[in-house]
């Protein structure tokens, strides 16, 4: 018998989320972000549910080429652009839009102009609006834009930025002001330049800051049915979970008061206690730092994790779950009202990390 753990990928839920997000930004076009193997869901598994998106964005060239192979004719965007002249050549060959966030990329482009028969490439020029990760600082933006416009094979240009706190009370006011001022300055200093599109929002920006929707939004996490906000559950945003991680009980133990559970014995029973052993551990992507009390659903009933998560197993409390035994169904997240965000919160992390960490050894089933 195969180990009973399984990740089910619900494409209808994903297609639903795409619709919800498109409706939430009705005047913008939507980049569906599939970096990190579609946030752990598998590019091949999610691809057919992305039809309604206007473009697909990723970091890895391989993921972009896979989308072309699968028949995607609409735009593809490399969110960190190209890392070498070889990447740039492939981007041109496969018509991948590229982010340009550093002068080093302008140097590569200048040193490697396109072949005569190659179509121009769309470029996303990235502004650092305060996050201080990737992008040109405001004083360097004008020069970068001027250089960009003089390069051979330059297509249309979009000014983009990425918010550091679109999901937090601090909000986007300063970053948006910075972006708008930079945009206005570019237009003023280049009055004869062709139109310049704008792209600012990730999922949190899209859902919380409509004033920043502009031409293109870029959504990742919300597509997969996880909330970008600490205090707004995904179901309240009408988002449906796409990954359902399930398993079964493969053993049970009956403890006396004072007996302990798992490595280090960090949980001690205070009264007689029946526990179940679930075929799921940190080698499957379940967070090892999830503490006692983290919610788990067993045989349709909510219960709690006990003790330390091991590599291949974890223990759960079977108190009050009548009839639970070997073979009983277990939901780790995604189904039966247990969101990945709840598990993530209990484990001191975010849904993103849990979804992306799903281990390759977990069999996936697409429905
Ligand atoms: C990952 C990423 C996104 C999507 O972010 P979510 O919070 O998952 O919606 C958008 N823009 C850029 C540049 C990214 O790297």
Task: Walk me through this protein's architecture.
The chain contains 11 helices and 18 strands. With 367 residues, it is of the alpha/beta class. The strands form 3 sheets. Strands 8-7-6-5-4-3-2-9 form an 8-stranded parallel beta sheet. A 6-stranded antiparallel barrel has the order 10-13-16-15-14-17. Helix 7 (138-150) packs across helix 8. The longest helix has 17 residues, at 173-189. The chain starts with 5 loop residues before the first strand and ends with a strand. 44% of the residues are buried. It binds pyridoxal-5'-phosphate. The site of pyridoxal-5'-phosphate (PLP) has 13 residues, from helix 9 and strand 9.
Summarize the model shown:
The chain has 367 residues and is α/β, with parallel strands linked by helices. It has helices at residues 11-24, 35-39, 43-46, 61-69, 85-93, 103-111, 138-150, 173-189, 203-208, 340-346, 351-356; strands at 6-9, 29-33, 55-58, 76-78, 97-100, 121-127, 154-161, 197-199, 216-219, 243-255, 260-261, 267-268, 273-278, 295-298, 301-306, 314-317, 329-333, 364-366. It contains eleven helices and 18 strands.
